[in-house]
Amino acid sequence: MTFKELQELLKLINKSNLTEFKMKDGEFELSIRTNKHQKQRGKQEPATHQPAGNMPQTAPIIHMPPVQQPYSPAPPQQPAPAPQPAKPAPEATQEAPKQESASKEDNSKYLEIRSPIVGTFYRSSSPEKPPYAKVGDTIEVGQVVCIVEAMKLFNEIESEIAGKVVKVMVEDAQPVEYDQVLFLIEP
């Protein structure tokens, strides 16, 4: 008997009103006994395996809880910060905002094509076909630049601006949010 079959059997026994269950399959014997009083309160005694023939004397005891615990993901763990001297740390924090502001200034001179819906971003109509718009292409108003799939519907996204594609902000087949920037366009 496989472990999965044993699990299914234990689930069925747990759901039933049986107070005792015995099974023999070749040299494998299984005996489960529950107390009616405990069964009514949702408790069950552990299942025990009785050795038979040449099975080892220390057979495993399997207990499956009657109620599964709900899944809750572990909170993300932050790595401990590395100790640094007092002077270099402030310099690093001062440089980061300058770099961020420089990249924001660079992007501010470009126009943005944003996603009008939540879905999955595709650069082309199929994997074999070339992308609708790639970096360096000049696009016109009304030209299809990508597809966003939402609920099995493929929505062609048309450009509302004309210009040159400077950057594609989303990888192919990645999820996008409403109003997320898809392309940067130089007018």
Characterize the structure shown.
Among the domains are: 3-50, no CATH class; 106-186, OB fold (Dihydrolipoamide Acetyltransferase, E2P). It has three helices and eleven strands, in the order H-E-E-H-E-H-E-E-E-E-E-E-E-E. The protein has helices at 3-15, 36-40, 88-108; strands at 20-25, 28-33, 48-50, 111-114, 119-122, 138-139, 144-150, 153-158, 163-168, 174-176, 181-186. A four-stranded antiparallel β-sheet has the order 4-11-9-6, with no helix packed on it. Strands 8-7-5-10 form a four-stranded antiparallel β-sheet, with no helix packed on it. The chain has a three-stranded antiparallel β-sheet with strand order 1-2-3, with no helix packed on it. The protein is rod-shaped and about 80 Å long. The N and C termini lie far apart (69 Å).
Show the helix and strand layout:
Blueprint: H1 3-15, E1 20-25, E2 28-33, H2 36-40, E3 48-50, H3 88-108, E4 111-114, E5 119-122, E6 138-139, E7 144-150, E8 153-158, E9 163-168, E10 174-176, E11 181-186
Antiparallel strand pairs: 1-2, 2-3, 4-11, 5-7, 5-10, 6-9, 7-8, 9-11
